[in-house]
Amino acid sequence: MMSFFPLSFCLSPLLPVLIFQNMLAEKVEQMMEWSSRRSVIRMNGDKFRRFVKAPPRNYSVMVMFTALQPQRQCSVCRQANEEYQVLANSWRYSSAFSNKLFFTVVDYDEGADVFQQLNMNSAPTFMHFPAKGKPKRADTFDLQRIGFASEQLAKWIADRTDVQIRVFRPPNYSGTIALALLVSLVGGLLYLRRNNLEFIYNKTGWAMAALCVVFAMTSGQMWNHIRGPPYAHKNPQNGQVMSLNGFLYIAQRIP
């Protein structure tokens, strides 16, 4: 009986360490399980506070704060979500995938309390929560200046976490199909007019076509096509149409 007390006295300092390690192992195991089901883990308020904010944590977490429900009418949220999914899939199915980085999303309709806690009044927003310490200013992605392309997000993540992600995009055959249809249309037209091809040498027609191309290339519509901005932006909290400083919308670029 006498030997029990010295033994318990020696083990007592180790008890908090064992509890800490056990809690950390459970959190990592749970995050890995969720990540195995889907590349982007959906978080509500409780999950966010437990797995992202609360210690212990030895992994970094990327969080996209968004508003994807149709009634929110946030088109830029849907576009940003597509790029975010591409990036998360590239990480999840790469050979470098590990439990050091996880991709998560908090939707306003599932975690309004998180938006209020972080004083967020717009979406989408990308934040990095480091494994140690609190997020700094650089841990919030500069969406207005850089945009939300997967490649730009990957560069930012590499800067914040030293994790290199090679972006793999699913093949897009729409351009090839459109080109094939155009070639078929032109070929069919030339075949039908094969006995009368004088219109090819019509200088006025070519001049008008060239002017149309020039006007299209210098118009706001071409900028919209390249950058793909939303028509407008709605605040996810009150639905009010608003504009963000430094962010251009289709409504502002239509000539």
TrEMBL record:
Pathway: Protein modification; protein glycosylation
Domain of life: Eukaryota
GO cellular component: oligosaccharyltransferase complex
The keyword Membrane belongs to this UniProt entry's keyword annotation: yes
Pfam family, one: OST3_OST6
Record's keyword terms, sorted: Disulfide bond, Endoplasmic reticulum, Magnesium, Membrane, Signal, Transmembrane, Transmembrane helix, Transport
UniProt-listed InterPro entries: OligosaccharylTrfase_OST3/OST6 (IPR021149), Thioredoxin-like_sf (IPR036249)
Subcellular location as annotated: Endoplasmic reticulum membrane
The name this protein goes by in its record: Tumor suppressor candidate 3
Species of the source: Esox lucius (Northern pike)
Source lineage: Eukaryota, Metazoa, Chordata, Craniata, Vertebrata
Gene for this chain: TUSC3
